[in-house]
Amino acid sequence: MLPLAVAPFAHATAAGQTLYVTGQMPTDITGVLVEGGIAAQTDQVMRNLARVTELCGGSLADVVSVRAYLMNWDDYPVFNAAYADWFPSRLPPSPFVLPSSSERSRVTSARNPRRQCSINGR
């Protein structure tokens, strides 16, 4: 099961052989922000991302890029360690963005060139 969508959007959309995954927030399936700091939030985002890719017939092994947004540069080492746990054999590139106005950390996109799927976020 996926977290409730906060807007009318699809969790993922395929274009050709590439799967684009919508930004995943550190929320559980009821839409509640997980507590426990950046490590717990990163784990929740990655669980959400893994679930979306699985529903589309893929896995995290198919992910070729992840873009991460964090509110605080000091969270980066903790985020990076938690992120690395989800990719034990190969780390996809992870551009790090520190926006000036972000409410939560989030993984915003993952590209999957081998699968096609479109699922509704509702």
UniProtKB/TrEMBL annotation:
InterPro entries: RutC-like_sf (IPR035959), YjgF/YER057c/UK114 (IPR006175). Belongs to the RutC family. Residues 107-122 have a biased composition (Polar residues). Residues 98-122 are annotated as: Disordered. This is RidA family protein. Gene3D superfamilies: RutC-like. It comes from the Bacteria.
